[in-house]
Specification:
alpha/beta, 18 strands, TIM Barrel, 13% strand, 6-stranded mixed sheet, 3 domains
């Protein structure tokens, strides 16, 4: 038996090491300079900074967008932080262009023809950064200009963001040549939403080149919002209870009980609401691109005769939703083109839980729509949320065959796909959820399906994270931009910059954790991997394994100890990062192995855990429950 376990562990360790060395590449030539340091950077003969001064000026279009202004502010802010220099910022109408003008030109200005760049060929959110004589052009539109600005800062000033509180940047710069830029890039996935609450602010998302805030809402609820955004019960239930709502009142009735007049009235209500939301946002020049019209969470769909007939004919509850929204989408598109020409807005519906199945059939070995009425209009986004998938394995694993096939089926009737995956244990916020080995694979799948929006749902409602979820946030940002990024290099960069002097022991802890999880999967084929599965048992996480990880934690504290006197501010920051990562281990020791400790020792462990958890802002034990109500009360605290 020992030999079998040893063999399994060796195979798992080899698999982890191979995966860490990077995944397979595709044909896409994606610039990786934002991850790979400055080895390939060439400099011009022009001085960007000389004798602690600079002759450079930032230039904006006279009519500029918010993200263009933010790009200018970010360049100025980080130049000042690196060198103490403030650069002037002017409109293109207030400056003359010349070969030696020393301008940083942002966006669509009067000087486009001088750049030699075809702006029309730049993809959405893409950019080109190019040096022409003494000038730098950051070409693109809106988000593209902003992301190009961060690329400029990366090469010019070593900028790189690893976490909200960890931004690498050159310091005390007094003399620096201008970089010879000539690079274009664009994201693999157009809209990239942060997974965890640590990147909840718009600025931190921008700095990680993420932009998941695409939704127009009245109440801030961008999913499960068919009631509060469109059909609030307080407004309609008294008169429409038996026509607009399901039999149990927990979902809409998307057929209005088969009553054509009531169905038309429901659709008109949705259309007018869509117009209101667009007018609200576009009226203040906030041109977001999506409105969610999605069913309520964890509630059965309507089972009236009309809805059941739709389900029987098409094999899925989703057909009634599609038939409801397609006519609305056609009218909405006509109105939008007339009212706001040049702008596009998706109406996004869910493929989720009772409406997850796609209305397709097989003909000649291929999936095809059951009929043309279930093909989604091009302005209807299909948001696939495989709630029950196994997220300890990627979508190409046999455990997820059903979900990959479901996604393929939806791709037959929609070219406008959104994807919602999961990377956290929502029933145990104080534990690990090992999706590290699947992120790159699943994101490549999303790219290959031309997914427009990716939300890899983590602990969205807290910025206090453990179980290496700060790393997961970093990987989420990097890999959703470039799914072929070097995974091993990303890990190296993160641990070096985030844990600094504690890099080595924290990396050993992380590697050992990953090896252990692979071992669990290899030796327990029934190990559940759903986001609401409970795998945290004494058998899965023995005391000796957890204690080994705590030794790495102790080594990390020892590694930073010399900094306490030399650099107390950095010491405190690193101490906190190590302590937060320790909480997952300490929590499992207390919860799973309490009987193995003396009462006094266990009590002190609990006191110390609560003290540290409180200090670093940990309040949730799971998605909707607090540590106080779930844990501390049981501990008598």
């Amino acid at each position: 038996m020992k030999n079998k376990i040893k063999s399994a562990l060796m195979l798992v360790l080899c698999a982890v090491m191979l995966f860490g060395a990077g995944g397979c590449n595709t044909d896409r030539d994606h610039d990786s300079s934002l991850d790979s340091g400055k080895d390939n950077i060439e400099y011009t003969d022009y001085d960007f900074i000389q004798n602690s001064g600079s002759e450079y000026t930032i230039v904006l279009p006279a009519e500029n967008l918010y993200n263009e202004r933010l790009a200018a502010d970010e360049i100025n802010s980080f130049v000042f932080e690196a060198s103490g220099i403030k650069l002037p910022c002017v409109a293109d109408t207030d400056v003359e262009y010349s070969a030696d003008a020393k301008l940083i030109i942002l966006g669509n200005t009067a000087f486009n023809d001088k750049s030699g760049v075809d702006f029309s060929s730049i993809p959405e959110q893409g950019y080109t950064v190019k040096t022409v004589d003494s000038n730098v052009f950051i070409c693109g539109e809106n988000y593209g200009v902003l992301y190009g600005a961060y690329d400029f800062l990366h090469d010019q000033l070593d900028y790189e963001m690893y976490a909200v509180d960890e931004i690498a940047l050159a310091r005390n710069v007094t003399d620096l040549k201008l970089v010879n830029f000539n690079r274009s890039d664009s994201p693999d996935i157009l809209y990239r939403s942060p997974s965890n609450g640590d990147f909840s602010s718009a600025l931190s998302q921008s700095r990680m080149r993420m932009n998941g805030n695409i939704w127009m809402t009245e109440n801030g609820n961008w999913v499960h919002n068919s009631f509060d955004e469109f059909f609030p019960k307080s407004k309609y239930e008294s008169t429409k209870r038996d026509l607009w709502y399901s039999k149990d009142g927990e979902q809409l009735c998307y057929t209005a009980r088969g009553n054509a007049d009531e169905l038309a009235l429901m659709q008109k209500t949705v259309l007018e609401r869509l117009k209101e939301l667009v007018n609200k946002y576009f009226g203040v020049n906030d041109y977001r691109g999506a409105i969610s019209f999605t069913q309520e969470d964890e509630a059965p769909m309507c089972t009236c005769d009309a809805c059941n007939a739709e389900k029987q004919k098409y094999g899925t509850n989703a057909a009634a939703i599609i038939h409801f929204i397609n006519p609305v989408a056609r009218e909405f598109k006509t109105w939008l083109n007339e009212t706001y020409p040049g702008h596009e807005v998706d109406i996004v519906i869910f493929a989720y839980q009772d409406a997850e199945t796609a209305p397709v059939k097989i003909e000649n070995g291929q999936y095809v729509p059951i009929d043309d009425t279930v093909i989604l209009e091009d302005n209807v986004g299909l948001f696939y949320a495989p709630f029950y998938a196994d997220y300890l394995h990627d979508f190409y694993h046999e455990k997820n065959t059903t979900y990959l096939e479901t996604f393929k089926k939806w791709s037959v009737i929609s070219d406008n796909l959104y994807l919602w995956t999961y990377n956290a244990s929502f029933i145990n916020y104080m534990a690990w959820f090992d999706t590290f080995n699947i992120m790159s694979v699943n994101y490549k799948m999303a790219r290959d399906f031309n997914v427009r929006y990716l939300f890899d749902n983590g602990r969205y409602n807290t910025s206090a994270l453990t179980g290496f979820d700060y790393l997961k946030s970093y990987l989420n940002a990097k890999l959703s931009w470039d799914v072929d990024a070097d995974y091993a290099e990303l890990l190296d960069n993160f641990f070096l910059n985030y844990f600094k002097d504690a890099e080595d022991p924290m990396r050993k802890y992380f590697n050992d954790f990953r090896t252990w999880m692979e071992y669990l999967k290899a030796t327990n084929e029934t190990l559940p991997g759903r986001q609401n599965s409970y795998i945290y048992t004494a058998e899965n996480f023995p005391k000796q394994v957890l204690e080994k990880w705590m030794k790495y934690i102790d080594e990390a504290y020892e590694a930073i100890a010399p900094m306490k006197e030399r650099d107390p501010q950095t010491y405190e920051k690193l101490y906190g990062r190590i302590c937060k990562e320790s909480l997952a281990v300490r929590y499992q020791l207390i919860q799973l192995h309490a009987a193995k400790y003396e009462a006094s020792e266990l009590e002190q462990m609990r006191i110390d855990f609560k003290k540290d958890a409180d200090y670093y802002g940990f309040t949730l034990s799971r998605e909707y429950n607090t540590l106080q109500e779930d844990v501390y009360s049981a501990w008598g605290m």
